């Protein structure tokens, strides 16, 4: 970790930062989260070009995406725990420094192995930023404006995912693939200096970092994502079974090691809070639904309907655009209304939109597809900010880092689950795989809707826990 204490941090009060300082601090968070989210989206689009220029196979090039996601999921909870110990500010700034340096290494990579190693470090840097991002938002804004803060954060993520494929296509049309990563360098440098100057210092816990617990966590979650990826790529049972056993072993070791700890890295203490547990389950199920839809729909558009990749990108756009539109609106509403109600309404809309995609006409027009995708985007966008507020609000202030880590982990685990289930659906039926995947997505969205409305029952007792 770099010594970020040399910069004089802004001190934060109980009501957050003053509006001017808050805006600059929010800008630094938006740069970090935006870069981390954008690099998830653009890498998928650029894989064919990268594989061709590096003279490698498409199957091998998938590691460019997989290693980034694996590094993020494996280190999110250790970084969130570290944030409570050394400060969220220091972890975020260090993550931005590493991410920027790794982006430069990606741009200078000369082979697939060098690029994969650089992407590994880039994923670690992204993880450090994402692990404490939500915790920092919680201290930047006063309580009555935190829904707005989470809505703005969801907007940044949605915009990054929405423009990712288009930005990648435009860059590849005018320049070579290293520029996909080089554009992060000036942004990262600017964000780094703004963060050092404007991010506030926060209260530190009296806990210490347990290296063995962190190692068990990395093994458990890293192997879990590897297992999902191998299952999605039809790895043999002789590969999947040992990975499954190793995942179970590491989780057992992790739970035994952190038993009795006041601030466990895998925050079992927070999951004992009904509101926190239901909100986390809502997030996992919703992102699984998103993963199922986002991975399966391009196959339907391109293989079944015969659309080009560019047309497919435009057909996917209404979902992302409506998420970006609805996120800040839902964030503002969550400052006045129950997250359980807002999230439940949004997830009911998402489930309905997914079912309308299942029942789409045989030869749909652009309008037929567009309004269904828009309905899904409205529902998904209406869920995010209220759910973020529910997760963070149900955790005590001193456990903000653990709660923030769960936010990011829930998203990535849900998306990985959805992607793996798509592969299973296409294994069951190549012709009906998309239909099965969308049915599963609607089912996950319905489960998330039930979990969200269930929070109305437990919310009052949870506030006194």
TrEMBL record:
Annotated compartments: Membrane
The Major facilitator superfamily (MFS) profile domain, residue ranges: 25-460
InterPro entries: MFS (IPR011701), MFS_dom (IPR020846), MFS_trans_sf (IPR036259)
Listed GO MF terms: transmembrane transporter activity
Pfam families given in the database record: MFS_1
Keywords in alphabetical order: Membrane, Transmembrane, Transmembrane helix, Transport
Keyword flag Transmembrane: yes
Recorded topology in the membrane: Multi-pass membrane protein
Stored CDD domains: MFS_MMR_MDR_like
GO CC entries: membrane
Spans traversing the lipid bilayer: 21-38, 58-79, 91-110, 116-141, 153-173, 179-199, 211-229, 235-255, 275-301, 313-333, 340-360, 412-429, 435-458
Superkingdom field: Bacteria
The protein's name: MFS transporter, DHA2 family, multidrug resistance protein
Source species taxonomy: Bacteria, Pseudomonadati, Pseudomonadota, Betaproteobacteria, Burkholderiales
């Amino acid at each position: 970790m770099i010594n970020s204490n040399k910069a004089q941090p802004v001190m934060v009060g109980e009501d957050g930062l003053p509006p001017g300082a808050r805006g600059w601090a929010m800008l630094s968070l938006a740069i970090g989260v935006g870069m981390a989210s954008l690099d998830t989206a653009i890498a998928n689009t650029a894989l064919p070009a990268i594989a061709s220029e590096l003279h490698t196979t498409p199957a091998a090039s998938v590691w460019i995406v997989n290693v980034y996601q694996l590094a993020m999921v494996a280190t999110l909870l250790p970084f969130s725990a570290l944030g409570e110990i050394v400060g969220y500010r220091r972890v975020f700034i260090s993550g931005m420094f590493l991410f920027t340096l790794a982006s430069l290494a990606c741009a200078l990579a000369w082979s697939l192995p060098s690029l994969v190693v650089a992407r590994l470090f880039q994923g670690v840097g992204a993880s450090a930023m994402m692990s404490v991002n939500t915790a920092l938002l919680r201290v930047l804004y006063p309580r009555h404006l935190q829904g707005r803060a989470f809505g703005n954060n969801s907007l940044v993520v949605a915009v990054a995912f929405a423009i990712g494929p288009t930005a990648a296509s435009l860059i590849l049309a005018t320049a070579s693939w290293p520029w996909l990563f080089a554009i992060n360098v000036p942004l990262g440098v600017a964000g780094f200096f703004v963060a050092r100057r404007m991010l506030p210092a926060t209260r530190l816990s009296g806990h210490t970092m347990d290296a063995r617990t962190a190692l068990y966590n990395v093994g458990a979650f890293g192997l879990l994502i590897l297992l999902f990826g191998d299952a999605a790529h039809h790895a043999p049972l002789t590969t999947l079974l040992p990975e499954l056993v190793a995942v179970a072993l590491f989780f057992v070791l992790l739970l035994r090691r952190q038993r009795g700890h006041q601030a466990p890295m895998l925050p079992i203490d927070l999951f004992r809070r009904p509101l926190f547990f239901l909100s986390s389950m809502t997030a996992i199920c919703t992102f699984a639904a998103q993963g199922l839809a986002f991975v399966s729909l391009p196959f339907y558009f391109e293989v079944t309907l015969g659309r080009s990749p560019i047309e497919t990108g435009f057909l996917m756009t209404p979902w992302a655009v409506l998420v970006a539109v609805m996120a800040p609106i839902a964030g503002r509403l969550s400052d006045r209304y129950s997250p359980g109600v807002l999230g439940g309404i949004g997830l009911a809309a998402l489930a309905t939109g997914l079912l309308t995609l299942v029942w789409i006409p045989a030869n749909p027009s652009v309008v037929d597809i567009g309004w269904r995708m828009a309905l899904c985007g409205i529902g998904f966008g209406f869920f995010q900010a209220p759910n973020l507020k529910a997760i963070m609000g149900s955790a005590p202030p001193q456990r903000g880092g653990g709660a923030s880590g769960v936010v990011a982990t829930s998203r990535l685990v849900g998306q990985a689950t959805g992607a793996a289930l798509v592969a299973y659906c296409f294994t069951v039926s190549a012709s009906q795989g998309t239909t099965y995947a969308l049915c599963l997505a609607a089912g996950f969205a319905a489960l998330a809707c039930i979990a969200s409305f269930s929070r109305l029952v437990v919310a009052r007792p949870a506030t006194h826990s």
